Amino acid sequence: MKNGFPEDFLWGGAIAANQTEGAFLEEGKGLTTVDLLPTGEKRFPIMLGNLPSFYPIEGEYYPSHEAIDFYYRYKDDIALFAEMGFKALRLSISWARIFPNGDDVEPNEAGLRFYDNLFDELRSKGIEPVVTLAHFDVPVHLVETYGSWKNRKLVHFFEKYAKTVFERYKNKVNYWLTFNEINMLLHLPFVGAGLVFEEGENELQVKYQAAHHQLVASALAVKAGHEINPDAKIGCMLAAGMTYAYSSNPNDVWDAMNKDRESFFFIDVQSRGEYPGYAKRFFQENAIELTMNEEDEEILKNHTVDYIGFSYYSSRVTSTDPEIQENTTSGNVFGSITNPYLEKSEWGWTIDSKGLRITANQLYDRYQKPLFIVENGLGAIDEVNSNGEVNDDYRIEYLRAHIHEMQEAINDGVELIGYTSWGPIDIVSASTGEMKKRYGYIYVERDNEGNGTLKRMKKKSFEWYKKVIDSNGENID
């Protein structure tokens, strides 16, 4: 039995353009959906598809507009990542930096040049870019003009965007992901797919039609990527986490399986190349009729992904007992019955390191393709003490436990490419828009209202993670 992490294991961190870059209209960039998400009580309704305006509203604070100013500070931040010994940085390209409106005839050269410089900087430090094409940002023009992913035309626009960046960066990027947490479309449809619902619209029908368009677009991106660079590895990405049955009641077990299938559906199509039988039954029983082109089934079948990327923050619990259902907690958008055996984070997310091993085994058993853990971390309120230090031992404890279970999964026979923990530097929270919900090894002086110098400072976990990487996961104490 092999023991420990592979020699070429990709240790690093993960960020997203819309949560780090800022410079939201600099050098020709267009508005994206995330640029319309304010902080406060209006944020969540918009994330669900209730958009009040296609333009930022005066008086609202939009954290993505400046974020942590990575657009101008990336060299300094990458130097800190290199100091930790990063082998990889997962990041995303902002679609609207390349095609400001999404349907432009020609790409924006300034946007292309920015990512050229960014990837060059990473490579100069020996850091492999792992690049997501769509990380929760659709050009607003595509939403306003076409209805976003409701419309088949977005397949063409996305394919053109993918071909453009594949061609431009074919000598700089070897690892790609098509859609970030593609299953989030069902839970936060505006965030996942730019969907805005009209009164009386069949929302379930709209979601799955949009999902079909994204799945076809993903397959066409895989096709284009392999044609442009046959050595490129192109993956999909799932917001993962096992759903446990609250009891051994068969009804609970069946409900847990169906909740998992709701998410697996997307990866089943992207990895296996066809719609599973359980999805077809679901469509039939819910009067969902997908409009497909004649060639879609062939496209999906012939252009499956090379690997499965996934995020893991927590497990979930489900029950069919109405009394048990009243005892719920939050957890990365996915609601869950409270698990009496586990603790929770300050944001109510269940902390379940063993669940990472279980999830990795389940995904590998299901798909038999390499896995890449591209998000995992603990959001917490970090305090700077009187000595100017952040002693985030709770984060170290969380990550240590998860890395241990990751090693156990490898010993189980799971093929893992790498581990990029979420938010190696403090960034804007995707769900709440907050800065006080911090994940990083690097503290960023910024508050929820946008005040602060944006000064960077190493936390205690910085040196700890550096030691982990240097020992290739052997020294996690």
Describe this structure as you would to a colleague.
The two termini are 24 Å apart. This protein has 16 helices and 14 strands. The protein has one domain: TIM Barrel (Alpha-Beta Barrel), CATH 3.20.20. It is an alpha/beta fold and 477 residues long.
Give a quick rundown of the structure:
With 477 residues, the chain is α/β, with parallel strands linked by helices. Helices cover 39% and strands 13% of the residues. The protein has 16 helices and 14 strands.
Defining key terms:
GH_1_N_CS; single chain; eight-stranded parallel beta barrel; 6-phospho-beta-glucosidase; hydrolase; globular; 14 strands; Glyco_hydro_1; two-stranded parallel ribbon; 477 residues
Order of helices and strands: EHHHEHHEHHEHHEEHHHEEHEEHEHEEEH
Largest sheet: 8 strands, parallel, barrel
Radius of gyration: 21 Å
Unreliable residue stretches: none
Average pLDDT metric: 96
N-end to C-end Cα span: 24 Å
The class by helix and strand makeup works out as alpha/beta
What is the CATH superfamily label?
Answer: Glycosidases
Please give the CATH architecture. Alpha-Beta Barrel
The CATH topology corresponds to TIM Barrel
- Taken as a percent bin, the fraction of beta residues is 5-15%
Total discrete domains: 1
Strand tally, please?
A: 14
Based on CA inertia axes, which overall geometry fits? Answer: globular
